[in-house]
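INFO batch 0412 | record 1 of 1 | parsing
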Amino acid sequence: MTLNYQHLYGLFGRDISGQFPSIDAILHHARECKGLTLKEAAALLVAPGEFGGAIFDAAAAVKRATKGRLVTFYGVVYIHDFCVNSCPYCGDSCVSEHADRKLLSPKEFLADLAALCSEHKFKEICFLAGEDNKRFPPNDLARYLLSARQIYQGKININVAPMSVDEFGLIRSTVPGRLHFRVFQETYDRDIYAREHANGPKRDYDWRIESQMRALDAGFDEVGQGVLYGLNDKEFGSEFETLAMLAYAQDVKEKYGRFPQSMSFPRLRQAKGVESYHVPKPITEEILKRFVAVTKLTIPEVDTVITCRETAAFRREIRPIVNIEDFGAKPGPGGNLGEPVHFQMSLPDSRSGAEVRDEMLRDGYEVQ
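INFO prediction complete | emitting tokens
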């Protein structure tokens, strides 16, 4: 798949007043829940700050019209935190000073999953693993996920390194039930991608960007995508990342007849073990809120995802335009059993899932 990213950047460099309908007209159209064009999305992404409230309110109206006040929790199980990639920003990368890495045994894996399932009746659980195929190849992943069906029958979401069609097919043929593959491109800008991913298999931009389509080709039911905000320090860099994610989703829709099921919006945070790394271009909460809102307006059926990488106060503020949140994630192997874990990145919201759920219910949300 080839994104014309010069074209996408170019949308932000034009005179918006001369190229696009008025912001008010775009928002009026967006409230019909029929989606927006990339040009209309670009106009909203860079609209003056005074339109922020109106853009958010329109997105909240679209979310209510399509999903009501429903918020879905997903659980998190880390299988291992070994990795052969050298991403300089990641606490689990091979350049991190993180030493106490762990691969859960099959017995430990099931115990961790059982502990998680005792806290909430999950519709979706995300299973994560670092990229180290010699230590944990796809056939081992298939075996672990099959064993999970002893305890959990809901949707299985795997957030692991990209695989071949045959490897995805092995997972599909081994594991019954609904399967979702989620991978973050980190950045859709080839220059930034090369700068941040110099070594390891992750350096292959094309292998990563095409992975969702390989998963669908292999029979996966759903895919999800995301970028890592803060990596792209070019002019309009973060706006470009949002637009590129939307453009990619439209390509998936054209080829497979459906959009990616979810889009995630993590902001790059400082990580233990790579303290010398500085986020190239952090974005504010207001900017992130704009990106999530424009995504919801452009593709109303997509499920937007926010996690405990954000503060408790901001999660509550942005919740009217969010569909999915994590449930008290303890991101490390054995975390659900209460074992001390090394966090891949700092997590500002350390509340338990039950505390977040209680807050949602008090605020009138429907929780599943």
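INFO post-check: The chain has 15 helices and nine strands.
INFO record closed
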